[in-house]
Amino acid sequence: MHQHIKRSMRMQIAAVMLGVACATPVAAQTAQADNAAPAQPAPANAASAQPVPAFNVITPPSAPLTPEAAEIKKRLEQKFPGATIRNVAKSGYFGLYEAQLDDQVVYTDAKANQIIVGSIYDINTKQNLTEERTRKLNRIAWDALPLDLAIKKVKGNGQRKLVVFSDADCPFCAKLETELKTVDDVTIYTFLFPIDQLHPDAARKSKMIWCAPDRVKAWDDFFSTHKLPDNKGDCDTPLVATSALGKQLRVNATPTLVFVDGSIIPGALPKERLETELTNAEAEAKKLAAAKKG
After folding, report:
1. Which residues contact 245 (CB under 8 A, 6 or more apart)?
2. What pLDDT score was predicted for residue 292?
3. Which of 95, 94, 120, 92 is nearest to 106 (CA)?
4. Is residue 266 a contact partner of residue 31, using CB atoms and an 8 Å limit?
5. Spatial strand order in the sheet of 115-116
6. Most buried residue, 68, 72, 118, 160, by CB count within 10 Å?
């Protein structure tokens, strides 16, 4: 039954992506952000020998369960053996409870006899409430990211922060790079994340870019002119480490964006959405920091 639900999730997510990009069985594992170009499906395999440090993926920890939520969690675990069930709580919608089945937010009744897989929208604001909730529950620990494994580009004062998992041959990554050209006052950390299954030459190109004397210029030049730096790509690279990092963070597509509050969005967001998410993430990160101190 667990596999049936997961197949249903994949079908729903894939339906969001169809019509604007290719959708493969792997691509269907990754949801599409509203108003975003789709992300290129993953996983990725690359080459290097640099280990990736372990860190806590989920922030914050699950809240204590009420007796009712604990019983629902127990029943869901019985009905979906092997699945990770967490964050069970009253949702505030239609008397339903919400729960995370692996990384997906689902809804169920008080007896866990029925389950709803899908999104709840606010009609007035057109906001996807389920997506917003999922992002909050799936936040990662930004401060634990190994940013030294990324290509660092500072624009303007560099005050805002953004991480991007990117594939050199991914067309949607190219689209994101175009959008980022007009975004200022941001530091962009790009983790090289070539998808060998779709782009067998992407790892080679990523190595050559990493081995260039000026990695930022090599990356920008490649997306502007498709010109690669003049080297063999035989220096030490972080590709194995960034691939392992992406898998640990459940990055299933490129581009995948990580904002400073730890929230993750797959897909090439347009500039307007990027600006909104950057601003919101900065404000949310300050709230999270203040809450930790309190």
Report:
1. 52, 145, 146, 149, 191
2. 77
3. 120
4. yes
5. 85-90, 97-101, 104-108, 115-116
6. 72
Here the tokens at position 275 are 């600006």
- Same domain for 208 and 277? yes
Residue 52: burial class (beta carbons within 10 Å; 0-12, 13-18, 19+): middle
Local structure of residue 145 (DSSP, 8 states): S
- Among candidate residues 137, 158, 183, the one where a domain is terminated: 137
Which amino acid is present at 85? I
Domain encompassing residue 95:
67-137
Tell me, what's the pLDDT at 25?
Answer: 31
Q: At 49, which amino acid appears?
A: A
Residues 210 and 248 in one domain: yes
Residue listed under structure tokens 């597509």: 253
Q: d(Cα 190, Cα 215) in Å, to the nearest integer?
A: 10
Q: pTM, whole model, 2 decimals?
A: 0.78
Averaged pLDDT, groups of 10, the chain, 294 residues long: 45 33 33 55 47 53 84 94 91 93 91 94 91 86 93 97 96 96 97 91 96 97 95 94 90 93 92 95 89 75
Tell me, yes or no, whether 119 and 245 share the same domain.
no
User: How many domains does the chain fold into?
Assistant: 2
